[in-house]
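Researcher: Here's the sequence for the chain we discussed earlier.
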Amino acid sequence: MPAPARTSPAPAASPASRWPAVLFGALIFFAVFIVYHPALHGDLLWDDSGHVTRPDLRSLAGLGRIWSEIGATQQYYPMLHSAFWFEHRLWGDAVVGYHLVNVLLHVTAACLFALVLRRLAIPGAWFAALLFALHPVCVESVAWISEQKNTLSLVFYLAATLVYLRFDAGRSWRTYAAATAFFILALLTKTVTATLPAALLVVFWWRRGRLNAGRDILPLLPWFALGAISGLATAHFERVLIGAEGAAFDLSLLQRLLLAGRVVWFYLGKLAWPAELIFIYPRWTIDPAQFTAWLYPLAALALLGVLIWRKQRGALAAVLLFGGALFPVLGFFNVFPFLFSYVADHFQYLASLPIYALVAAGLIRASARLPRWTGQLLAGALLAFLGALSFAQADTYRDAATLYRTTLQRNPECWMAHNNLAILLANQGRIPEAIPHLEQALALHPDFPEAENNLGDDLVRLERVPEAIPHFERAIALQPRYGVAHRSLGMALAMSDRLNDALTHFSQAVALLPNDAEAELYWAMALFQTGRPAEAVPHFERSLALNPDAAETHQAYAAVLRRLGRPAEAREHELTAQRLGAGR
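Model: Thanks. This is the structure I predict for it:
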């Protein structure tokens, strides 16, 4: 960011002057659409199934649960999951719709970014927006359906910024209320947006050279309070609901400080040279005894010192904004993906904006010394280069197998990619190909309960049930509250005629997975098989309430109802099962 040219807001655009903005917006849309075209039919990945609305949340009552029930969704981001709810009403499970929404949100964020920069009178606003729109580090956020939390939250974040800058100029409390509403929507979509009030203070310091308590700080105090509440709640949910705790997250304060320094330089490096981008990067070992571990934070402090000494307020503001937006993922708080890697491209989606602004302003000023067409050609070449890299990166998201195989090519020790690829292969019926990947995942990460459970599931599908049981037991030993493993072990025990043991694990699975239709069904079936059909009835009904379109559940329930002497009800479920089966 350059030194501010003025402290007053940019003048409102005339109708005629809005045309270039419309043209730039159209240019961004077509460029982004072309760049991301390879990923538009990309599969559901990793935790996408936890974001695309589950059957039990697809009703109006389900929408209410999204807002009122902690744990109803993977993370408590009710605005995000409401968006997914509405999208599912429009196109169901068709992935193209979700990908197109992400593209449109990314384009909208780029345009809002340009408007914010123009409001701040920063040169090269639309060039910065194009850098952001086409940079390869954004591909993970745009091509991965789950990361609609990034694209949607950034739209709200930038809308809140733009409206708040209007409030700062005119001091209209109606405008303040509108800005606050956008900020709350951003927080309810992704908590990293809690950094916005601090970012606004940095912007005001950059523009004015100092901060005024009454004018600059006081109006933002409610925002700081909202952000703190949101951040503390998310940190708690990350630990308790998602599992971001345990030995893998045990870092000392010194290790976290050293990690933070390395993370900052990693992200700056990927912005400067976005080569070898990986869905899951190698996980570093942070060892204070290694001299090189100290170089990263020392270099960061040296950079800050030089900028302060040379009074480079614009560059210093950009660096502070960058580091501040990264603060939630620098390592001071436990974030579940740290289990696999301390860095991810989507973590810097928001944080990278001030760097694009700084680079764009610097290049615009440098190009002023060149012949007009030379500067424009160089700018076009840079954008074309970034677009080509993004197109190639988006192509790795064209299907899940390509993404995971590419990840393993660039990070062969990525045990999570081995596990995810094995799941994909198993779902395609290629179980003999899946098993070696699970074995490799466990060789790389022996304490991996998901891989143990998945290996057990695959062995069951190969009718090697006695070999599967120890893997389910190992998964539960590693993670006693692993509901899916209890369900899987119950199935294996039932298949081994150990129905009483199976009932114990089915009951635990239902307690740990209260919204799991399969666990309820398996418990009901085991009760029926042990001669307790009356006890099975409520579990069948609960399973059908969670998944009313399960033909096999209707058919099994009909058999129970006939045993209980309720033929009319049984006939209704048999007809429903036939109808659902015919619809497949």
